[in-house]
Amino acid sequence: MATTRHLSWLLAAVMLAGSSPASCQKTRVLLRGPFVHGHATPQQADSVAEELRHQLTQTGFVELLLPSPPAPQVRANANTPAAGVVEPMADEVIDAKLHKSGETYTLTLTAVEAVEHLTYTSRGEAKSLAEFVTTLMPEFVQRFTERHGPERVVIRVERGFDIYPMDKYFGVSDPFVEVYVDTILVGVTDVRQDEKDPVWNQAFVLPPGAPRDITLVVCDKDALEHRELIGKLMVPWGRDGTYAIRRPRYVRDFGKIHVSFGR
Q1: 3-state class of 52 per DSSP?
Q2: What is the dihedral of CA 132, 134, 137, 140, to 10 degrees?
Q3: Over the stretch 77-115, which tens digit does the pLDDT of each residue have?
Q4: Is the pTM of this model over 0.90?
Q5: Of 208, 206, 191, 203, nearest to 115 (Cα)?
Q6: What domains sit in the chain, N to C, each tagged with a CATH number?
Q7: What pLDDT digit, counting tens, does each position of 26-48 carry?
Q8: Where are the beta strands (DSSP E) in the chain?
Q9: Which residue, 93, 84, 90, 95, is CA-closest to 33?
């Protein structure tokens, strides 16, 4: 399976590299991190960043940008620039996070397009960093190239209605939504603090191919930053609408989410 994905990525890279300069304007990409968590080390993050930079530049249409000076890899909040770090203007930003717990590494790669704020996330676990080189990274880079093509499909998580209050005292939640296609995580919305009717209006690029099952997992982030499940909903591929959040063994719904599709 990994070999097939790798060959697909190589084919895409060769096709893009063979394009004429006039027909292939380079995309300016800012790579942040990887930021280390758990027992991961800055040295391990450096090796991941080097390989990811290599695979991105091999596509032939990416111009990699780096913050100046280089951002520290240990940060409390990886979503904002560190003090004193100047980030160049980019068409897309890739945030990378490397976590190690016990003998397991987790690598999370999130790309955000600057103008339309289209987002997609790839996350994988491995027993060694070398596994990411032939599995998660090629898959991520392939999706990165395909998202600019005419066949891309985008799901937009627009807003929620009457989200179940996990904070019973104040009657609200801090909701966010995870978007899955089959079992593949393709994106996570921002957390909306103390909201019963949150507005996200965030779009995520879906993997190419035949229509598949789309699952939205609605969660609450509590005071200790824990993820608490509110419920789930199934969304038919390409069908705009408002869908009820459900939980097993409950007849009632736990709120509603409105989504739309586009390209």
Answers
A1: helix
A2: -130
A3: 444 445 566 778 888 888 899 999 999 999 998 888 876
A4: no
A5: 203
A6: 2-146 (3.30.160.100), 153-262 (2.60.40.150)
A7: 788 888 888 898 999 999 999 99
A8: 27-38, 62-65, 92-101, 104-113, 118-126, 153-161, 175-181, 184-188, 199-206, 214-221, 227-235, 241-244, 256-262
A9: 95
